[in-house]
Structures are given as structure tokens and as C-alpha cells.
Amino acid sequence: MKTGINHLFIPGPTNVPDDVRMAMNVPMQDQRGPEFGAFTLGILADMKRIFRTTKGQVMLFPGSGTGAWEAAITNTLNPGDRVLMARHGQFSTLWADMATRLGLQVDVIDVAWGAGTPVAEFARRLAADRKGAIKAVFVTHNETATGVTSDVAAVRRVMDDAFHDALLFVDGVSSVGSIDFRMDDWGVDLAVTGSQKGLMCPAGLGILAVSEKAVEAARTATMRRAYFEFSDMLATARTGYFPYTPPTQILQGLRRALDRITAEGFENVLARHARLAEGVRRAISAWGLMTCAEHPTLASNTVTAIRTPEGVDAREVIRIGYERYNTSFGSGLARLSGKVFRIGHLGDLNEAMCLTALSVAEMALAEAGADIEFGSGVSAAQGWYAQGRAGRARLQLAAE
Q1: What is the pTM of this model?
Q2: Which of 156, 181, 232, 278 is deepest in the core (most CB within 10 A)?
């Protein structure tokens, strides 16, 4: 029989803080009642700040990030439209598959799993598309399967340099709320996230932010949709009431999670994720292992995919972590199965939790056959975290 808590270090669903769970432990409420509209409007306003948009509208779809993907596509594009995207991980692959199944003509650029969005190749294809046949460009901001963050701003620049009018779609499921994301500054037209990652809630909400340009495209788009209809959901942004039954308990949790982000300070939230991720990366380097990300500039601040040494099955590392140490690591997906395991470091997380993940990973790696010196990665991370704490303490004293 296992004792203690299960340590959850997958990149989503993430840990739900106690006060968020308690906020959801309320009686069912009347979603048509007089107070519900104002409650929802407050959530929408705060989500706009998370997306960093003043011009866009936020929609909350009961479902998942995948549902929000479908809503984005079906409301703004037409059957047979040509779109440009890259496959460099499991989730960018799934997005391309969805686009194909929905009847789009998908121009796919395949790059290594561990690379980012191929901005230079995007630039070449957009510049060559003088008749504007490409109607949308899709970017996976943070590829959760590989721990790679792509440069959305750079994609916007090459679109502008080519004077291209395509819509810019961004998958921000494992980045929004945890990694710097700037919808208005980057000219993003449709940005997707979910409730179960940096927003620290259970899965159940697909969250979509749309630009004025995307709303206008939805007026004439001819793809079939019903449940995901923008015009129905846009009414929510005005009144706070949903066109169908919303998951009221998750909304209560999201309200509390947004309050937590506000109390910490959004810039501090982003800095914390960067600090924790760097400690994990230093540990991996101390072990003598490599991340899946091909270059340090691509390294994600929300999840790290760790390549296991030759002859060490990453699935064994995950199994040992779970069965012997009551700890869940993320698995390697699709072609990365058995080759990587993932440590998710996003949402409600601190230094001590990351050190727990690293200490268990050391034991699991060693038992799976890796040549790991116990304490090497933990020590490297400790040095980084302690240095950061000391620096912040000095700044605090100087301020006082």
C-alpha cells in the first residue's frame, strides 16, 4: 500500500492548489441566475490580461484545448483552404491531423522532434505565395512533447515582411499563463489554451482568444459548426451567460486561480517558471544527459523532455518512479516513446517540489541502468535556486 501523496510531475493536468480545489467544492449554482453574468465577465476580463490582449475577445468552451483548436479552425476557415504549419512533436502533429480531417489543404514542414517552428522556411513559403493562397499560419508555441518553445514574434515578423494577410493561429496550451505570451504585440489572431496547465485547474475548459480579424473571418467562413459557433459564444463576452450549460465548478476554480496569479503578480509568475526550469536544466546537465530540445534557446520553461542514455528505456524510468517512489513523470509520446521522460514544471510549483522531482529521477534513472551520481543533479539545482533566493533577498533589503 502506498503512503503519502502521489508526486505529480507531468506537464498537465498539473497540481491543483488546495484553495482552488476548495473553491470548486460548492453547491451547484444557477447558471442563469442574476449574479452569474457578472461573475463570468470578471473571468473573461482577467483572461484577457493573461493573453495580453485589449483588442481580442476570450471564449470559454466546455471541453479541452483540442476542442478550442477545432473551434478556431471551423469558425474562420473554409473547406479546401490552404494552411501552413510545421510538425515537430506530438501536439503539432495532432493539430496538422485535425486540419487535414476537417478538409483543409495542409502544407506541412517536417522538422526534427526537438527543433522549433522553422521560421526561415515559413518566410520562404510566405514570400513565394504572391496570390495569398495560404489562408492561415499555425504555430505551436510550446511543444509539450519535446519541451521546445518556438518564437511566435519571429513568425509574425516574416508574415509582415512578406506582406501576407494570413491568419496567425497559436497553440498556447502549455505556455499561456506560464511563458511570456503577447497576443496583441505579436499579432496573433487565434490563441488556444486549456484550464489544466498553467491555470492550475482540472481539465474541462478550452480557452480561446480571438482577434477582431478572426471575428470578421467568422462572419463568412463556411465550415460546418454548431456547438463551437463563435457568434453564440461572443454573446457570452457581452452578457456573461453561456449558450449552453457551463462547468460552473471549474469556473469557480478558475476564478480562484486567477486571483492567485494576480496576488503573486503575473511577471513574478513568469519569472518563477523561468527560474524553476533553469534549475531542472542544470540538473540534467550535471547528470551528463541531454534534453530533447536541440538548443538551449528553444528550452521550454514549463516542461523538459530528458533523453535517457543508450540502453536505458525511459519507460522503465517512469515505471520505477511511479511504482517505487509514488511519483509520476511524463512519458515519451509517439516516436519518443522509450527515449525520453518528461518533467513538467508549471502551474502551482516551487523549488522544493522541483528538487523532489530531481531526486526521484536520479533514483529511477540509476535503477533503470543509467550511470548517475546520486545528488549531482539535485546539488546543481540547489545551487541555482539558493543563488536566486539570495539575490532576491539582497534586492529586498536594498528596497527597504
Answers
A1: 0.94
A2: 181
